[in-house]
Amino acid sequence: xxxxxxxxxxxxxNDVELMLTALAEQDLADRVQVVRDGVEALDYLFQRGKWxxxxxxxxxxxxxxxxxxxxxxxEVLRQIKATPSLRHLPVVMLTSSREESxxxxxxxxxxxxxxxxxxxFRAFKETVRTVGVFWAMxxxxxxxxxxxxxxxxxxxxx
Length: 158
Hints:
The protein is α/β, with parallel strands linked by helices and 158 residues long. It has a single domain, classed as Rossmann fold (3-Layer(aba) Sandwich), CATH 3.40.50.2300. Helices cover 40% and strands 17% of the residues. The chain contains five helices and six strands, in the order E-H-E-H-E-H-E-H-E-H-E. A six-stranded mixed β-sheet has the order 2-1-3-4-5-6, with helices on both faces. Helix 2 runs parallel beside helix 3 and helix 3 packs parallel to helix 4. It is globular and about 40 Å long. The chain starts with a strand and ends with a strand. About 8% of the residues have low confidence.
């Protein structure tokens, strides 16, 4: 069985810990690579800087916080979707904001889904489970059309 990988771009250590715990409990990934800002996310994806020569190919999905230092998640998304070799990557945008303008911009740039991060751990685990189901359906779909979700925290970009 091929190892599933996730690139988690998140600058908040508490959110990283919550996400890693929830992913482990949901058994959604064999390998998660954490990067702490937009520059490091792009370096990882473009295999430059400290990621020069990394092996393992592209991640199966990118979980990308919108508000990060140096380069924000929206700019990282823009560069992913503008690069022919990366534009196929499913990208799930993460935020604590419920600003509609963020949702619209992310979807227009090609994000596959937009997740509003809940603060309570049980709700956060349910959000990660929903993202996992979404990811599995997206990766198995012949058309690549995102699924719909009953969750208030996961909004597919249709």
